[in-house]
TrEMBL record:
Composition skew (Basic residues), residue ranges: 431-445
EC number: 3.6.4.13
Domain DEAD-box RNA helicase Q: 2-30
CDD domains for the chain: DEADc_DDX49 (cd17955), SF2_C_DEAD (cd18787)
Function of the protein: ATP-dependent rRNA helicase required for pre-ribosomal RNA processing. Involved in the maturation of the 35S-pre-rRNA and to its cleavage to mature 18S rRNA.
Ranges where the Helicase C-terminal domain occurs: 240-387
Record-linked PROSITE patterns: DEAD_ATP_HELICASE, HELICASE_ATP_BIND_1, HELICASE_CTER, Q_MOTIF
Protein name (Swiss-Prot/TrEMBL): RNA helicase
Classification lineage: Eukaryota, Fungi, Dikarya, Ascomycota, Saccharomycotina
Locations listed in the record: Nucleus
Amino acid sequence: MAGFQNLGVAKWLDEALAAMKIITPTAIQEASIPKILQGHDFIGGAKTGSGKTVAFGAPILTKWSEDPCGIFGLILTPTRELAMQIAEQFSALGASMNIKVSIIVGGEDIVKQALELQRRPHFVIATPGRLADHIMNSGEDTIRGLRRVKYLVLDEADRLLSDSFQKDMKRCYDILPTNRQTLVFTATVDDNVRNLREELGANNKPEVIVHEIENIDNVAIPKTLDISYVFIPMHVKESYLHSIVTHPDNENKSIIVFVNRTYTAELIRRTLRHLDQRVTSLHSEMQQTERVNSLHRFKAEAARILVATDLVSRGLDIPTVQLVINYDMPQDPADYIHRVGRTARAGRKGESISFVTDRDVEKVLRIEERIGKKMDKYEKVSDNRVINNSLTKTTKAKRESMMEMESEGFGEKRKINRRKRERSGGNNQHKVSKPKNKKSTKTAN
Ligand SMILES: Nc1ncnc2c1ncn2[C@@H]1O[C@H](COP(=O)(O)OP(=O)(O)OP(=O)(O)O)[C@@H](O)[C@H]1O
């Protein structure tokens, strides 16, 4: 019997997993699958790229195939892109069983979604904001199926349990049955997540299992990931970026560049485009169709570089990504773990380079303490290389980009979009609470 069947996974699903070259269970899958099949609530912490989706997906799909009734499972996740990715995985795994999966996220047709919910799909994959909209505004017919779900999954649980999702999460919880099984997963377990143990345990059910794999080697990032930093003055960051992405070692790599603000994402995308790089971007100020197209271009390798905010830092599984650059250092060490975890997934090798200015030293120390590892110094790009190869043309490209953005009123568009969203009540998480550190990138549903 194959590895997954030994853990209790159904034969049809074992075959579907094998067709995706998922044959030997990872540590988190070995820990979670039997316990979830036995009926336990499960809180799972395991590094980025370690297969947490299958860790909850395989047991739920096994149980579903034994009794495929109603809306069987609800999976909540913080971003639209992640909801779509999980839905793709569930649809692919359950294709031979005619699985019906519904994606309930902001930016898409709400009436169409309500009709889908009425038809009782087997699984609903949702962002909390949009699901809360349906709960508040749709008729009983639409949400009745949700009152009987057997499984609730919180994917990227620490993010879902943070303040900015609190109101919407409560609305979702309020209609779910208390006798459901709850599965909670993240690469960065925090106290909010750990505290769920007591809350879940209060329901007089089998013991809640908490499994944190990070504790085994005390390092919070994958073994196959090399992390380094380069110390640079603030005003030459773009030139360093150009030098690094065009360095012979990197010029063919698929790269994600993380920035802290949507304005920077747009500026860097334009600057790199003026420098003839195949580049695209992804951030919360983009329209939904642009977001979908941009991600598609990057996955298909039509664009080699993706410039993104923390909207993309969690969960996205793009196996071709070999290098992650932190153009801006993240405030929160958990964001660092998720960002660099977009590479070195499923045992592959990957690399991350962080740009450190004199303002970031404190952040780096906190990150190193949190991940249990020091960053190496990145030595491949010297000041001379930057000055000779990149400085003049990058400065020109940046100036042109800034002028374009000003004449197109980039800031204005953002304000109008925000006003529109507020008027339509679509993205109400913005109103609930803004992150304290002024970042405008982490609340989009
Ligand atoms: N047992 C396995 N063997 C080989 N590959 C696997 C296995 N399980 C999952 N994978 C693959 O590993 C990749 C990462 O899985 P997944 O996206 O579930 O990671 P994750 O732990 O949720 O990461 P993150 O914390 O970043 O969300 C996916 O491409 C998945 O298909």
